Amino acid sequence: MKDTLQRFLFENAAVRGEIVHLDATWQAVLERHDYPAPLRALLGEMMAAVALLAATLKLKGRMIVQLQGSGPVSLLVVEGTSERTLRAIAHYSEQDLQGDLRTLLGDGRLAITLEPREGGERYQGIVDLSGDTLADALTDYLMRSEQLDTSLWLAADAQQAAGLLIQKLPGEKSGADVDLWNRVQHLSATIRSEELLAVPPGEIIRRLYHEEDVRVFEAEPVCFRCSCSRERVANMLRTLGAVEVHEILAEQGAIDVACEFCNQKYNFDVVDAEQLFAAGVSPETPRTHH
Ligand SMILES: [Zn+2]
């Protein structure tokens, strides 16, 4: 099945829905890192969730969702953009991982950052991790931070990841079907993980909501893409400063930086390093004060 985000809307009330199915996008993450099974499931669900949540935003830019914990899993990061691209990474200290969200992360925090590409403020919300599942933690966050009534169903295995979101939009339409939100929640809750993973989004919508008046939008492609670049690494090295960069070069002969998300390697030798700090080479070179 293709990597797809399918948005839909219930005609008689302010309720929206989305289904995401990730295949190659999720495979691209698993090809680069061999995660232990329970962590793999959690990261896959998180990738599906970020695809869904990023698509609810109007902003052009990126959404970064982070789970930080004191347990054997210390960090999960998933980034989604308004162009429907995703990347993901997890840090963990043990191979033999077991248990649910709380066991894996221990006392944890959930942070969601919104980064508009041009104009607008960077915004970050942080809450203590609550609930036993990622879906619980995210819906709790959305209720507490955004006052958005949202329900999520997430699933992932070693091949694919998928998710279903329904969300009550602020502001009830006049003459709205007031019971619809409850009905849609009950209907949605009948979805099983296996169905979410195996059945195409359009078919899921037909099966779940066949008695409702649903407007289905055109399916949108989703893909893995990493936002790293040689220029970004160069900027990071400039921020380190000429002294430190030359120290590393003196010790190691060259600077090798590997992107954590995609394993892309960036190499800077002595000549490259000279260029980093040569005046007038890049307008992005920060001015240094001595
Ligand atoms: Zn990368």
Question: Quick one: biggest sheet?
Answer: 6 strands, antiparallel
Kindly provide the name of the CATH class of the largest domain.
Alpha Beta
- Content of β-strand: 25-35%
SS elements, strand count: 14
Order of helices and strands: EEHHEEEHEEHEEHHHEEEHHEEH
The helical percent reads: 25-40%
Shape: elongated
Low-pLDDT segments, ≥5 res: 283-290
Residue-averaged pLDDT = 91
Rg over CA atoms: 22 Å
Q: What's the CATH superfamily of the largest domain, by name?
A: Hsp33 domain
CATH architecture of the largest domain: 3-Layer(bab) Sandwich
CATH T-level fold name of the largest domain = Hsp33 domain
Distance between the termini: 57 Å
Verbal overview:
This protein is of the alpha+beta class. The protein folds into two domains: 4-224, Hsp33 domain; 230-277, CBS domain Like (Alpha-Beta Complex). The protein has helices at residues 24-32, 37-54, 101-105, 134-146, 180-188, 193-198, 201-209, 230-240, 242-252, 270-277; strands spanning 4-10, 15-22, 61-69, 73-81, 85-92, 108-116, 123-128, 150-156, 161-168, 214-216, 220-221, 223-224, 255-258, 265-268. The strands form three sheets. Strands 1, 2, 8, 9, 10 and 11 form a six-stranded antiparallel sheet that branches. Helix 9 (242-252) packs antiparallel against helix 10 (270-277). The protein is elongated. Residues 283-290 have low confidence and may be disordered. Bound molecules: zinc ion (ZN). Zinc ion binds at residues 226, 228, 259, 261-262, 264. Residues 226, 228, 259, 261-262, 264 line the site of zinc ion (ZN).
